[in-house]
């Protein structure tokens, strides 16, 4: 059964690992699909952080849009998929990095991760997408 607008937005706002998909320009290649941390608040833009020099960043810049799937399998199978245009790309701030990492890591691991990220991952960028198209379902009722 499809989720209501409020249900799908609330589900997407939970800290699921997303699957980001972005088109490749090569005719002989399928879209790039990678797991990613993301941030979303109901009614707002969805955003992700990625290395400035990554394949993902290059493809996002070229495509101008992407899709993201969030799913769970317990207590019921539920998913939300959103697709939309990129509305901004900017250098990631320390506050943005802290926000996204805090969604996924236990508090005791946060500072160590932020230090590791700053030291090892290079410059990051925040890519914001405005959801335009949604698909959703909860298969718990069947």
Automatic annotation (TrEMBL):
InterPro entries: F420H2_bilvrd_red/Heme_oxyg, Pyridox_Oxase_N, Split_barrel_FMN-bd. It comes from the Bacteria. One of its GO terms (molecular function) is coenzyme F420 binding. Keywords: Oxidoreductase. Residues 7-134 form the Pyridoxamine 5'-phosphate oxidase N-terminal domain. GO terms for cellular component: cytosol. This is Pyridoxamine 5-phosphate oxidase. It comes from Streptomyces venezuelae.
